[in-house]
Amino acid sequence: MPITAGAIKKMRQDLKREAQNKKIKNKVKELIKKAGQKSTTENIRVAISAIDKAAKRHVFHRNRAGRLKSKLAKLVKPQKRAKTKRTSPAKTKQRQQKSKPKAKPRKVK
């Protein structure tokens, strides 16, 4: 048990923060579970948003948040692949060449 006034206050603050963090962690867990069961883009978007907010508040480490988001993104990836149109490598090469700025000629003294 803390003795000094500062230690007592710190204990009160720690208990308060612990309760808030638990609430956030439980909410994120719920949203992840919901997104896993029904993997709609809306559920996944909401879960990723909650994970970002938890990481911002230092409830989760940013690497853990990244892992969780990656796991959720894998659920939506197969659906999106079928819809996207793939371009040939020649077309992408042409795009890259167009986007490069042309070098200006040097002035010789």
Q: What is the compact description of this entry?
A:
This protein has helices spanning 5-37, 41-56, 62-83, 89-99.
Structure report:
This protein has 109 residues and is mostly helical. The protein has one domain: Methane Monooxygenase Hydroxylase, Chain G, domain 1, CATH 1.20.58. 75% of the residues lie in helices and 0% in strands. It is built from 4 helices and no strands. The chain has helices at residues 5-37, 41-56, 62-83, 89-99. Helix 1 (5-37) runs antiparallel to helix 2 (41-56) and helix 2 packs antiparallel against helix 3 (62-83). The chain is elongated, with a radius of gyration of 25 Å. The mean pLDDT is 85.
Summary keywords:
0% strand; 4 helices; 109 residues; elongated; Methane Monooxygenase Hydroxylase, Chain G, domain 1; mainly alpha
Give the biggest beta sheet.
none
Classification by helices and strands: mainly alpha
Number of domains: 1
The parts where pLDDT drops under 50 for at least 5 residues are none
What topology does this entry show?
Elements: H1 5-37, H2 41-56, H3 62-83, H4 89-99
Helix pairs in contact: 1-2, 2-3
